[in-house]
Fold this sequence. Notes:
Layout lengths: L1 E8 L1 E2 L4 E2 L11 H24 L4 E4 L16 H4 L1 H13 L3 E4 L12 H21 L5 E4 L8 H12 L4 H6 E4 L7 H11 L3 E4 H6 L6 H10 L7 E5 L15 H12 L6 E7 L3 H17 L1
Parallel strand pairs: 1-4, 1-10, 4-5, 5-6, 6-7, 7-8, 8-9, 9-10
Antiparallel strand pairs: 2-3
Helix pairs in contact: 1-3, 5-7, 10-11
The chain binds a DNA duplex (15 and 15 nucleotides) through α4.
Amino acid sequence: MKLRYLGYACINMSLEKTTNKTFRLSNLTEEKYLDTVRYNLKSLEDIIRWNAEHGIYFFRIGSELIPFASHADFLYDWTTDFKKEFAALHKLGKKHKMRFSMHPGQYSVLNSPDEKVVVNAIRDIEYHTEVLDLISPETGRIVIHAGGVYGDKKAAMKRFIKNFSKLSKKAQGMLILENDDRSYNIADVLEICTRLKIPAVFDILHHDCNPAEGDLKELLKMVVETWGEDIPKFHISSRKGEKGCPHTDYIEPEYFIRFKKIIDNLHFDKEYDIMIEAKMKDKAVLKIINNAMKVVNG
DNA sequence: TCGAGTCAAGTTCAG
DNA sequence: CTGAACTTGACTCGA
């Protein structure tokens, strides 16, 4: 396979801009909401332009683009209030053939046994769906993890599959599932993805923390197959020390090259994208383009 | 202005 | 059973 895009998430360190400016729920006023969303959308526009200038065509939009939009008490009609801005972003992304994704946080748990938690998770996923439907219905994907285990992984996976069916058709079409670093390894994720006919996202660090049985190459083949005609995307991050997974500032070039080689050697006539998860964000991507890629390409 | 504490939210595990 | 860790960035308030 052939590497197409490298991407990063939410923040641009060169511009010092984020799509995740927020405020306290207790301070939520119409003015605060309007100001903050305006800032986030403008930042996103600036980041897209910067990305285009620097040859980066893949970006994760922050979940807090519209702070509290998925909260039960949120009153404002953000899709109408910012219709113009969203239309402009859609046009801009399309012009540069950008790919976008989003990643709801750890509190969105679709497979929870607690009905209230599931209702909140669904509302959150539908919010992400609306954002991506406005900015990039062509490429938008929502990455989530499978959730908790609750002492019975098989039952928890069944619950995930059942609750998936409660999502809108649009949300179902955008949802993709990523292996996590403690509970659901890539084999578990593949099992769910195959059942639901949705793509699987392989994260190499999470796989190193929480490996699945079997040959990595075979697992990756199955991952690629879940994408059908679409372009698969992979995640790479690296971490400090042994405990937890705080991301390092940059990805170690050897780690990146090793991962890239494995994917390159899969026998598919396809392109693929990689999302870089490192503290230095865009700078980490540029460093890989300027260093690691040159080593690889000779 | 700076640093410490806090934030909408869930799950897991140590004690 | 409870409280802290998980992982993480940004806000807020008090010094």
